[in-house]
Amino acid sequence: MLQDCDFLVELAQNLELCINCDLAVILDRASEELGIVRSKRRRNLKNLELMLGEVSTRVFQAGGIDKPLVTKRRSRMCVGIRASHRSLLPNGVILSVSSTGSTYFMEPEEAVELNNMEVKLSSSERDEEQAVLSSLTSEIALSKLKIEHLLDRILEMDFAFARASHAHWIDGACPAFSSERCNNLAVDIEGIHHPLLLERSLKRLPDIVRLKSQISPYSDLKKDPSEIGPAFPVPIDIKIEHGKRVVVISGPNTGGKTASMKTLGLASVMFKAGMYLAAQNTPRLPWFDLILADIGDAQHDIVNVLHKYFNKALY
Fold first, then answer.
1. Of 69, 73, 167, 208, which cross-links 80 as Cys (Cβ 3.0–4.6 Å)?
2. More confidently predicted of 78 and 254
3. Which class in CATH covers the domain with range 173-202+232-296?
């Protein structure tokens, strides 16, 4: 399934080199210039925070604030100070004021140069990140068709694994096309369970797709009959001869007529999708170009003296 695929190993390695996919961040090693800019920015920011911490502590010790406060306003680092004590920061720049007007957020004079450098380095970092992303995007664009082809094959493989997992989970049987040469039955299914009702009686299908141990994740999936929980649905046999155009199911209410029809409908859809069926032996069905259903009509709803479903079928 994947034999003709180009796995684009070099592109994948380049992406892993530049981007941490788990955190969705561009790494320092993505480019030499980006690493240099980020290193400078970290040093500058450390000096800025250290200096502002000292200023805020002095303001606190002078009674200018309840506790030391270093924050950011208008993309610039600053300290909080009571409006009445703003003189503690001569030549400081007011960046913002609290909603009550009692607290100013001021940029000390000695922080201006470091803040300017932070703004400059931040802008340079964004430019370098954009350059890295543009370069990677160009590489990906050149491999667009190969990537699409690979994704299609991976989806096919994932679907195949999903079908196999489900088949193992329900202990399913592989269905086959019915043929008049084999027997006179167009539909020949023995001991089939309604797939949705059966799920309630099975242990949850494991999410894991890869195991370190050799123990199968599908072992012991079925509940022990003695366990408390929904009982296994009653299996049914469905046998319809070739050439039959209409099959009528009759019986008392809650006798399983609707469940039986749904079982056949779901089995037909699952068969077309390449799925196994929760049945015995080898279920045989024909190919249905179209599978239609009209379920849930009120029994008392009469149209033109006919039951609603029959009225729809007739007209």
1. 69
2. 78
3. alpha beta
